[in-house]
Amino acid sequence: MVWSLKQAVSFGIFSFQKKIEKWGDSFYLPNLMELSESEYENMFGHLNTGISYDLFHRNVLIAVEKAEKALDRP
User: Fold this and answer.
1) Is 54 exposed, middle or buried (0-12, 13-18, 19+ CB in 10 A)?
2) Which of 6, 60, 65, 72 lies 20 to 30 Å (CA to CA) from residue 34?
3) How far apart are CA 44 and CA 48, in angstroms?
4) Alpha-carbon gap, residue 6 to 13, rounded angstroms
5) In 3D, which of 23, 66, 15 has the Cα closest to residue 44?
6) What are the pLDDT digits (tens) for 5-15?
7) pLDDT tens per residue across span 16-34
8) What is the secondary structure of 13-67 as a DSSP string?
9) Rounded-to-integer distance, Cα 19 and Cα 25, Å
């Protein structure tokens, strides 16, 4: 019985890891930065976040800027 529980857990983890791998490109900042308004709506509209494209795009640009600064630090 213990083996079955371990198998069930590991299979669940593997399927979740595969989903994360698929999401990787979607949430890569340079890719988010290039999203058009219609692409943003297609990608996130079903989540009903209430976040406008302009606010989303501004936040992505800020995140990219902060990431670049973090890479420049010694």
Assistant:
1) exposed
2) 72
3) 7
4) 11
5) 23
6) 555 555 566 67
7) 667 667 777 778 889 999 9
8) HHHHHHHHHHHHHHT-HHHHHT--HHHHHHHHGGG-----HHHHHHHHHHHHHHH
9) 11
